[in-house]
Amino acid sequence: MRRLVTLLFFIAVGSISYAQLNMSFKSKYTFPAGVELANLWGYSAGGREYALVGTSVGMSIIDVTDPVNPILKQNIPGPQSIWREVRTHQNYAYVTTEGGGGLVIVNLSNLPNTVTYKTWSGNGAIQGQLSTIHALHIDNGYIYLYGSNLANGGAIIANLNDPWNPNYVGQYNTNYIHDGIVRNDTLWGSHVYAGYFSAINVANKSNPVLVETQNTPNNFTHNTWLSDNSKTLFTTDEVDNSFLTSYDVSDVSNIKELGRVQSNPGSNSMVHNTYVLNDFAVTSWYRDGVAVVDGNRPENMVIVGNYDTSPSLSGGGFNGCWGVYPYLPSGNILASDIELGLYVLGVNYVRACYLEGVVTDSLCGIPLSNVTIQIIGTSASAKTNFLGNYKTGIPTPGLYNISISSPGYTSKTINGVSLSAGLVTELDLKLYSSTTVNFNGNVSNVLTSGGINNSFVFVENSSNSYNFLTDVNGDFSKCNVLPGTYEVTSGKWNYITTCSSQAISTMNNTINFQLEKGIYDDFTFNFGWTESGDAGAGKWARGKPVGTFLNSTPSNPGSDVTTDCSDRAYVTGNGGGAVGSDDIDDGRTVLTSPIFDLTNYVNPELSYYRWFFNGGGSGGPNDSLIVRIHNGQTTVVLEVVTSASANNSSWIKKTYNVKSFITLTSTMTISFDAVDASPGHIVEAGLDKFEVTGDLITDNKKIATPQASGLTLFPNPFTDVTYAVYKLQEDLQPGARFVVSDITGRIVFEKAIVSKEGTSALNFCPAAGFYFVKIINGSENNSIIKLIKN
């Protein structure tokens, strides 16, 4: 496609590039001025080889038997279009275009003499209806037509028992397929606008069945191709700064990403099409030309060949090499350059020299993530993953020096490492640090003091971040934390997340959290919310919001709610860039919470902050955000947000007394359904700081409240959070709140009171010292209680 619009498994990210390597120029065939090239294919018969070149005015047949002297044999005319794809079956070529007119069928039997051709617009149930087609694939006597004007742009399937007269047999019409490959009755579809590839069972051609989907790194899945043994799928994302990515698809129910590679890291170059021969992924990379990637170890892909068809161009953009064809008997590669013409290239396929290993801390032996390993004198480098593993490689054998570096550690160089073609050199490394800290702590239940296992701890500042998961005793530790001031956050589903600022040093290297039971999520952690729906783009995603604007009005939020921990939220699409690049498109995306139990709450108040924007497009905005609460049997709509709702393009807090809406059960969920209705407009939604407050029965007893009107605090002194146990003298008044002041009388924290009596966490993050807490409720002004922060 060429756009004209204004984990425990290891993921290896390759980073190696060459201007011209293991490939040679044979010839170039230049087309008349104004004729641009699209994709191409090859054909051989009678000892002769041909390039079947898709052009903006049809298809050209060029004899490349003599690779240094290509000869035009015939032009097959067609409607004006920059998109053409070509495939062959027996002695026939099949040509698609988005210019209309249906499928062009070319009988190649008479080559090198004049050939005949015709168009096919469908038969049977689609008689005369087929017009535009984006791409195609042929497998085992069937042709699959993608991105047509039929079947919602899915796949039209016809048999080629008579290659001159295809016979329609079925279709996959669930959603648009841009390109795909079929093997062993599985169609691997590229859903470019939806950003994923699919596995579709086409054993029954009249009733294809979707089996699985998988998003690709840049969420713009253009092309797929299988390894020779069909166990690895390679994909391309047609956007700037994109990857050729490999996946283990040997178990379709458990697809795993294996590795990624870029032709020219840091240049924003864009990958386009890839095809596999002997486990080499031969790939067109627009402005970088042709890249030959050794995919024999798909978890460690290495570029071993390159030829730049447009050396004057670099970076992102839709110029240069559109397509490649590596299957000629001679071994020569054909490449179509959009502006410059057909290239015939020689290639020397060589296996990569692999360098792999693990990096650990020399003192405590833990794996080190984000360590940079560089093969000196080359552009080959890698970073370790969270298990300390790294994988990289180069195309040329020899002795190399290897550098290793990581913030807070002493860099080192290993000299004279021998790298050999087709072999893996394992090099395990240790790094020493004299500055890192052995940071540790514990997470426990505030009422029982028992440790909370599998709770999350996140330590982050502007330079570094560390993740922990507590053991069965609630303990966590890491020996290689860099000193500094961090935001330290702990949480677990069914507990209230808490956070504080912590200066970490060799003298201050321990922090303990006490978590209160409750339902709370500010999305610092992944507690298991799920996304569903059929939207083609802009699906719910958790992360730091990346703002977008429509005519200076915020569309996607640029930050989260500031009154919670960390700076994460759920937003619909978070790719940034132009306002329409990653908003919700063509359907709905639904975010659903994990199950929560409200049977232990006396009078629960549910609240959340939501964001909504709807504008642009033609006609009045018509999209929505629908919030529903479910109890396992009944569903109730809490609100429907539209463009007419108040205060859109901002974070709005909504609060509901749950008992007044729905019966409380132990299987509650809440869902946020964001919908892009037809015709399309810009629509974005966000969610942050979801919580339930109110009296909670914990550990088979209600948290104690004062027998008479009053206020107590526990624990006091406190380290991380203290709890106000209270009972109001008067009925609850508007503006009722807790007020915390420091010793100068300055108010440092306020929190609303939502019920006449109960327990409320005062989870502010003050410095150590003395504070004073009181209740304000109408004319009621309780005695001040002194609070000590350790």
Structure description:
Helices cover 0% and strands 49% of the residues. It is mainly beta and 790 residues long. Strands 46, 48, 51, 53, 56 and 58 form a six-stranded antiparallel beta sheet that branches. It has a five-stranded mixed beta sheet with strand order 1-23-22-21-20, with no helix packed on it. A hairpin with a 4-residue loop joins strand 63 and strand 64. The chain is globular, with a radius of gyration of 31 Å. It starts with 11 loop residues before the first strand and ends with a strand. The N terminus is likely disordered.
Quick structural summary:
By secondary structure, the chain is mostly beta strands. The chain has no helices and 68 strands.
Shape: globular
- What number is the mean pLDDT? 91
Helical coverage, percent range: under 10%
Low-confidence stretches: 1-18, 699-705
In whole angstroms, how far apart are the ends?
A: 62 Å
Assess the beta-strand content as a share of residues. Answer: over 45%
Total DSSP helices = 0
The major beta sheet can be summarized as: 6 strands, antiparallel
User: In terms of structural class, how would the helical and strand content be classed?
Assistant: mainly beta
The tally of strands reads 68
Roughly how many Å is the radius of gyration?
A: 31 Å
